[in-house]
Amino acid sequence: MKAAPPWQTWLFLLATASAILSMGIIQPDLTAQAFILVALVAVFGLPHGALDLPIAQKLWPLEGWRGTLRFSTLYLGIAGLVLIFWIIAPGAALVAFLAYSSVHFSADWDDSPAILRWTGGIATIAAPALFHRHEVMQIFGYLAPPSSAEPVATGLAALGVAALIGLAGALALRSDLRGRAALEQGTLWVAALSLAPILYFVVYFCALHSVRHMTEALDWTKDRRTAAWTAVLLSGLTVVAAGVASMLIRASDPISIEDTISKTVFIGLAALTVPHMLLVDRFQRHARRNPA
């Protein structure tokens, strides 16, 4: 696997430092954080997932509009099954979402030794719970029943302790691990300590994960301009769909705006992450065998 370029590490450090400084001055409440989440995920987060169609077109011979339609139907069908699962069993769906998100996010350190992949993957979802367990529990309460939200938040906090001890132990025992991956994960922990959980997620998801995946995908795609415009178009359609979903949620159940946004963004991300993760795993295995 080709190593990630150094500028991504420095971008993440700069974004984290800027967020800590800005949020320390502004101190947004939960509603303001929810709007920040929507704006930044829409602009910087969604395009990396919207590259899935160009990736699929290179992986398989999706000839003409019929091939594209078959892929899109399968992709959205998987996402729909995830939504149904969340409606039927929200507690189990939340646990599954966090578990596969950890595995998916660990690929941000795919060029690093296994210990750093796993400490990073766990930290991305568990670090905020270690320092802000009650806030994490409140957010989870929008996504699942309180009987599930509390034990999941507590379990994540315990995983966070394990990931932090694992990272510190690995760095203490092996000097060869003290590189950019360790610096990025150290920055993750600083962000988790200093920022509210939603803002932490925004910084990590937009300034490291999305940037890293989108750069890798564009480097591997031959027609970068078409891929980029396709990503912009699909991101716009996703934002419109999310807006419609938010209005339907509010119409069927008059809940708070942060509750509505949390349901729309996180459950929507969960639904889209499953087919995205399956495709990205195939893409990364293919990219290792056929480097650009």
Automatic annotation (TrEMBL):
Positions that bind Fe cation: H48, H104, H209, H213
Organism: Palleronia pontilimi
Reaction catalysis annotation: all-trans-beta-carotene + O2 = 2 all-trans-retinal
Protein function: Catalyzes the cleavage of beta-carotene at its central double bond (15,15') to yield two molecules of all-trans-retinal.
Annotated HAMAP family: Beta_carotene_diox
Protein name stated in the entry: Probable beta-carotene 15,15'-dioxygenase
UniProt key word Flavoprotein: no
Alphabetized InterPro entries for the sequence: Blh_diox
Similarity annotation: Belongs to the Brp/Blh beta-carotene diooxygenase family.
Alphabetized UniProt keyword annotations: Cell membrane, Dioxygenase, Iron, Membrane, Metal-binding, Oxidoreductase, Transmembrane, Transmembrane helix
GO terms assigned for molecular function: beta-carotene 15,15'-dioxygenase activity; carotenoid dioxygenase activity; iron ion binding
EC number per UniProt: 1.13.11.63
Signal peptide interval: none
Main localization category: membrane
